[in-house]
Amino acid sequence: CGRGPGGCRGGRTDMALRCAASLAAGRQPRGPRREGTVRWSSAAKASAVKINDKASREKILTLESMNPQVKAVEYAVRGPIVLKAGEIEKELRKGIKKPFTEVIKANIGDAHAMGQRPITFLRQVVALCTYPNLLDSPSFPEDAKKRARRILQGCGGNSLGSYTASQGINCIREDVASYIERRDGGVPADPDNIYLTTGASDGISAILKILISGGGKSRTGVMIPIPQYPLYSAAISELDAVQVNYYLDEENCWALNVNELRRALNEAKAYCNPKVLCIINPGNPTGQVQNRKCIEDMIHFAWEEKLFLLADEVYQDNVYSEGCQFHSFKKILYEMGPEYYNNVELASFHSTSKGYMGECGYRGGYMEVINLHPEIKGQLVKLLSVRLCPPVSGQAAMDIVVNPPVPGEESYAQFIKEKESVLNNLAKKAKLTEDMFNKIPGVQCNPLQGAMYAFPRIFIPSKAIEEAKAHKMAPDMFYCMKLLEETGICVVPGSGFGQREGTYHFRMTILPPVEKLKILLEKVKDFHIKFLEKYA
């Protein structure tokens, strides 16, 4: 450390700084031990004053100076209700008494956090990719090893720790394309149109970024379903685009009506340039599965009005109701003929986070973009390259979703058993939730045809609405906050997703284990009846 006769070379400077800080705090400086007193120069005193001045300097970044688009962003799924739930959990850990012993977070579709077991084969392949020494272990099946080796061969240095191409590992994109072809009955898919993403959210945000332009009345308008997943409204706010709401038909099981699309579009043309149409199918938060006719109507509408289609299809494996079937927008587009298939621009999205996998934390996903202008394709790759590449472990997880064990492979029997167990269990819970909600006075719940949420409509008495206004809360936020404080159940108010004026809802996941879900629903029932009695 370069010691001289007086100790470290920086010793005197350090001492001066400490003394200056003492002066700034109003304390008398103390000299160093065994070295006598220190004489203070005018320079040291001036330095103390400067330190004091710096301490009181105004912050550069404040609510007034920050990016106003970021300030406008709202994300209800992790909003005030969830923050309050976190506070209550801390209080419970400190031993503070509540009318309940735990907080049940039914606000978000986080399957594993709710106790769902991981799919063994997916975890085996990711483990092998993460620690390749396990490839010599007899504990892992050969079909898992085969996939892991193929993925690692596509990685720089045969390591999951290397960067990949911005568009993702090539062999995984090939597997995604093969999966899409199988899913859609042979409709061709080109790996070059596949982009691996950090969950579906990353892809949606990237496409919106490249689509949004203009100012004033020429600013891009983005048509989104109401109710919607708040990612869309948040991204639109952040990008300073214009949100154009079209309402799903609650009286008709949240179906899509092309007349409503036309109303929304025509009204929006007065103040923006609508050029994007978003669809969530199966629906979040509404749980509907759109039929073929609805999808054909939307595609025709997009073709007629020259709109870019975004199809959020992350719940494509989550279809429960008899008579319902998932139809991909790409497949229907292809079957409508070349006039549509060769012209309508479509981006569709999938993820590891939902379905039967529930692997939210890996942040794996993909988007397929078709009919993109060749020059825009280059711009999209450039935009994606700014974030270098998606998480490589997430890319590996996505590969197992699209390239699972097949009949004849040793892991197939266990894989299909686990997959069907998860989906059958979700189907039972969907029906249980619908039936129990519809037995509660003042609650109405449409069939949960797919996805993993209920979005019941709740009656809130006028007296409760007035009290909510006094607390400067939306009525359903007030309701959900009371539910949390009295039962420990955390759900998200419908106002965070959008709803028709004068209606109130909340979104609740159906992911808790069956017995816990029954307890949760009974608690909601008891709370709602008491709430109606209190505010009648």
TrEMBL record:
Sorted UniProt keywords: Aminotransferase, Pyridoxal phosphate, Transferase
Domain Aminotransferase class I/classII large: 124-523
Transferase listed as a keyword: yes
Pathway this chain belongs to: Amino-acid degradation; L-alanine degradation via transaminase pathway; pyruvate from L-alanine: step 1/1
Entry cofactors: pyridoxal 5'-phosphate
EC annotation from Swiss-Prot or TrEMBL: 2.6.1.2
GO MF terms, alphabetically ordered: L-alanine:2-oxoglutarate aminotransferase activity; pyridoxal phosphate binding
BP terms from Gene Ontology: L-alanine catabolic process
InterPro entries, alphabetized: ALAT1/2-like, Aminotransferase_I/II_large, PyrdxlP-dep_Trfase, PyrdxlP-dep_Trfase_major, PyrdxlP-dep_Trfase_small
Reactions the enzyme catalyzes: L-alanine + 2-oxoglutarate = pyruvate + L-glutamate
GO annotation, cellular component aspect: cytoplasm
Family: Belongs to the class-I pyridoxal-phosphate-dependent aminotransferase family. Alanine aminotransferase subfamily.
Subunit structure, interactors included: Homodimer.
Main function: Catalyzes the reversible transamination between alanine and 2-oxoglutarate to form pyruvate and glutamate.
Protein name: alanine transaminase
Species per Swiss-Prot/TrEMBL record: Pardalotus punctatus (spotted pardalote)
